[in-house]
């Protein structure tokens, strides 16, 4: 007889990038590998979101929805005898501008957005050897609609922006898309600050939003995951909290860009999180 398959209900993790989302995905996978299926920035999902173009110039919104739902369905299938019972998609940060679409496509699916203090997240993006390779700058030559709309509304040109300013505007637009989504009455989203990432996930998000019944073993594994550098590959590298270090590394240019273009979005996210 043929093995039957069933599909798992999706849970989505959106993020600002460089803010702990990889740690959270690793913790979910490590805490219960038999039951948790975790996809981290899977290419097919981003391709499905963008298949019709940012302005749907290649196909209709209905086609876009069908393609994305079909890809989720294919990636969510498990054999009926499988022990897997929970499905998590950690999206690429650039997919966060489509958070409202994903909420429309899967109106019952819980999702979260992970974010971090503005100066710290800017340092995380920009304090690298080749600044032009920073994730927040990859779209600088062809900004997304959300960034272009922001620039137009303030009479700015991308050519006159420093890398720090563009990065802050890009991240601010991501945050603003989330704020719009969580403020809708039918939202299934919750906000999660990096400052208390694992603690708040274990005590609030997991049981009250994702419906996870974490046992003692799962909690211990999650707490262990945060002691390991989340992006280490071949060997476990101990993680050292770096918030103070990043504050020290923030240049005056970064601080000004944060104040001008990102700090207000962070304040709004904090207000929305505390009042949810």
In spatial order, strands of the major sheet run 3-5-2-6-7
Specify the number of helices.
12
Element string (H = helix, E = strand): EEHEHHEEHEHHHEHHHHH
> What is the terminal-to-terminal distance?
49 Å
Q: Characterize the main sheet.
A: 5 strands, parallel
Strand content: 5-15%
SS-based class: alpha/beta
Describe the structure.
The protein starts with a strand and ends with a helix. It is 48% helix and 12% strand. 35% of the residues are buried. The strands form 2 sheets. The protein has a 5-stranded parallel β-sheet, sandwiched between helices. It has a two-stranded antiparallel sheet with strand order 1-4. The chain is globular. With 276 residues, the protein is an alpha/beta fold. Helix 5 packs across helix 7, helix 5 packs across helix 10 and helix 7 packs parallel to helix 12.
């Amino acid at each position: 007889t043929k093995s039957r398959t069933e599909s798992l209900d999706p849970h989505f993790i959106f993020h600002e990038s460089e803010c702990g989302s990889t740690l959270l995905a690793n913790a979910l996978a490590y805490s219960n590998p038999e039951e948790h299926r975790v996809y981290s920035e899977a290419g097919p999902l981003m391709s499905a979101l963008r298949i019709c173009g940012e302005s749907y110039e290649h196909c209709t919104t209905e086609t876009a929805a069908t393609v994305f739902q079909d890809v989720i369905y294919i990636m969510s299938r498990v054999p009926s005898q499988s022990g897997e019972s929970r499905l998590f998609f950690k999206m690429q940060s650039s997919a966060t501008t489509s958070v409202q679409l994903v909420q429309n496509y899967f109106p019952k699916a819980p999702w979260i957005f992970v974010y971090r203090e503005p100066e710290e997240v800017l340092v995380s993006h920009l304090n690298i050897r080749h600044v032009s390779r920073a994730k927040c700058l990859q779209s600088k030559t062809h900004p997304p609609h959300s960034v272009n709309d922001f620039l137009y509304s303030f009479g700015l040109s991308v050519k006159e922006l420093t890398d720090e300013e563009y990065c802050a505007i890009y991240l601010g637009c991501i945050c603003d898309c989330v704020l719009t989504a969580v403020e809708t009455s039918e939202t299934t989203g919750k906000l999660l600050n990096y400052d208390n990432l694992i603690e708040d996930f274990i005590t609030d998000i997991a049981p009250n939003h994702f419906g996870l019944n974490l046992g003692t073993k799962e909690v211990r594994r999650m707490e262990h995951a945060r002691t390991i550098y989340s992006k280490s590959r071949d060997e476990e590298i101990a993680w050292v909290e770096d918030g103070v270090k990043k504050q020290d590394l923030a240049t005056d240019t970064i601080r000004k860009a944060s104040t001008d273009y990102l700090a207000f979005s962070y304040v709004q996210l904090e207000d929305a999180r505390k009042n949810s």
